[in-house]
Amino acid sequence: MEVVGKYNRSEEALPVLNRETFDVLFLDIEMPVYNGFELLNRLTNKSFDVVFTTAYDQFAVKAFKYSAFDYLLKPIDSTELKECVAKLGEKRRQGDLEDQLNFLRSVLVREQQVPQKIALPTTSGLEYVEIAEIIRCESDSNYTRIFQAGDNPTLICRTLKEVEELLEGANFARIHHSHLINLDHLKKHVRSDGGYVVMSDGSEIAISRSRKDVLNNLLKVRSFRN
Question: One MF term from GO for this chain (predicted)?
Answer without folding.
Answer: phosphorelay response regulator activity
